[in-house]
Amino acid sequence: MKSGELTIRRILVALDASYHSLAALEAAADLAASLEAELQGLFVEDVNLLRVAESPVAREVQYPFVTSARLDRARMERALRAQAAQAHKALAAACEQRRIKWSFRVVRGEVVPQVLKAALEADLLSLGKASRPLIRRVRLGSTARAAAAQASSSVLLLQRDVGIRSPVVMTYDGFLIARHALTMAVRLAQQKGGYLVVLVLAGTLDEAQRLQAEAADLLRGRGLMVRYRRLMDAGAATLIREVRSEGGGVLVLSSTILQPDALQTLLDEVNCPVLLMR
């Protein structure tokens, strides 16, 4: 698969000590170990939270309790330092267990710009799908939404209690970025039981047959059990339905296969981890 090979040397994981970001950490650490990549942890001290804390009417209410306490900047700074320390400890434990190279840094600013800036120096950005939702259904949080739309690197989105597992489902349309996606899908499938589902995206049956043969040639000798599904002019709704019907453990797809709004819909609606390739 030389023409579609992809090198990932630096994986950035955005941490905020939430369950979703810790899920992103575990998946990123596993991937870094398999790729012999460096894992870089980032914690952003959110200046917007500090600004809110300076308001004379600011109160802290801890769910599910209803009692509140006066919130000020010093209290918020202590809380952020505690969260950063928790994130640092989790990163160190994950990386030392797997014996991978790692680093950690804390920056202060607005979360989205800081994460996107740090992603410029990484090959892959791993982050939680949301921060701390109070409902079971998890839709994209603001940071994940911005990363999916704007990050220069590939993006891995995860959520609490839903790790990467089999089967690996990926989309293939024959473009170079799809070959990169196929490379990553193969690596994930080899880690997670050897089962790969390839959704062949085409405009006509003849094109679908050609692309399936092309993908099969690229996958020859990889030791995987592969299942192909041919989809004609598939939009977000079709892809969502196919991923659900296949019981996808992770979805690997090219960032260019859908228009931005349709891509956001797909990311909102699928419950498995998503690796968005750029």
The sequence of SSEs as H and E is EHEHEEHEHEHEEHEHEHEHE
Mean pLDDT: 88
Helix content: 40-55%
CATH-level-2 architecture of the largest domain? 3-Layer(aba) Sandwich
Secondary-structure blueprint:
Blueprint: E1 10-15, H1 19-35, E2 38-46, H2 47-53, E3 59-61, E4 68-70, H3 73-98, E5 102-109, H4 111-119, E6 124-128, H5 142-150, E7 154-158, E8 168-172, H6 176-191, E9 195-202, H7 205-219, E10 225-232, H8 236-246, E11 250-254, H9 260-269, E12 274-277
Parallel strand pairs: 1-2, 1-6, 2-5, 6-7, 8-9, 8-11, 9-10, 11-12
Antiparallel strand pairs: 3-4, 7-12
Describe the overall structure.
The strands form 2 sheets. Strands 5-2-1-6-7-12-11-8-9-10 form a 10-stranded mixed sheet, sandwiched between helices. Strands 3-4 form a two-stranded antiparallel sheet. It is an alpha/beta fold. The radius of gyration is 20 Å and the shape is globular. It is 43% helix and 25% strand. It folds into 2 domains: 2-53 and 80-158, Rossmann fold; 168-277, HUPs (Rossmann fold, 3-Layer(aba) Sandwich), CATH 3.40.50.620. It has helices at 19-35, 47-53, 73-98, 111-119, 142-150, 176-191, 205-219, 236-246, 260-269; strands spanning 10-15, 38-46, 59-61, 68-70, 102-109, 124-128, 154-158, 168-172, 195-202, 225-232, 250-254, 274-277. It contains 9 helices and 12 strands. The two termini are 17 Å apart.
